[in-house]
Structure formats: C-alpha cells, structure tokens
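fyi for ur records
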Amino acid sequence: MELLGQIFGLVGVFFTILTYQMNSNKKILLMQGGSSVCFCLNYLLIGAYPAFVLNVLAILRNLAFYHKDKKPFLRRFVPILFAVLMAIGGILSWQGWYSIFAVLALTLNTLAIGAGRPTLLRKSILITSPMVLIYNCIVFSIGGIINESMAIGSSIVGLIRYHAQKKQLEE
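which gave:
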C-alpha cells in the first residue's frame, strides 16, 4: 500500500507539471483536479490522514471558489467557510504535533486564495509551502516533497517576475 501511495504522489506531481502547461482555466482546473485526487490517494495510502482530509476539502474548496465569482453573495462567505472547515477537518484527523503544519498551511492558503490577489497568494505560498514540505518530510510523501519544492520555486520566480515588470513600468 505504501508503494502504491508513493506512486500516486508521483503521478500527482506529473499532473501538477501539466497544470503549468495549460492555457485555459478549464484545462488548468482539470489538471489540478487530477493532481488533487492523486495526492488524496497518496496521503490515504501512506496513512497521512490529516493531509488526506485536507486535500478532500481543498478539492471541494476549489470547486466552490470556481463558482464564487458567478455568485456575488459567495465571495466573502466561501473563503471563511472553507478556512473553518480546514481547521475542523485537521483537528478531527489529528495524528500528532506535525499535523499542525498541514492544518495551518491549508487554512492560511484558503484565506489567501479567497482574497483573490495573485501577489498575496504567491507570497503566502512562501509561508505555507515550507510548512507542507516539513509535513511531507515527516510523513515521507515523496511526491508531496517534490510538489511543494516546485511550488516554492515557482512562487519565487513569479514574485521576481512580478517585481521586475512593476519596476519596468515605473521607469
């Protein structure tokens, strides 16, 4: 089961890489969905239950966030609801002190995504991804370690590009 879980984690990384190559929101969401499902199976099979529960909630969160812009009354409600659900899901699936890394990271990530500001999200990833990386090292999710390392690198590149473009516009 452990080996199968690690394989699902690596397939999740593959879907994440494909996400960066897509050019439409629909395709990006499809690849992210594939990645999320693979990581759910990865965490379930390696016995990392808090990450499993949080990733199931993240799939539901992403679906709600996709629809929140179509329904204005959901804009403020959805991020807070899912941040609370992340905290509750993490507490109910608690496995030890290291669970705090995943719970806190996904709760903060939910609020950052809900803010709808890409720069804030990139900056938050520099805080949340290292926490998830630590969690993945402790539960030994090879795919999770690779995925979070890529997220950190991608966020750094994105912030550098954003600041370089902003500087050019000011000149």
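The first helix runs from residue 2 to 21. thats all i got for now
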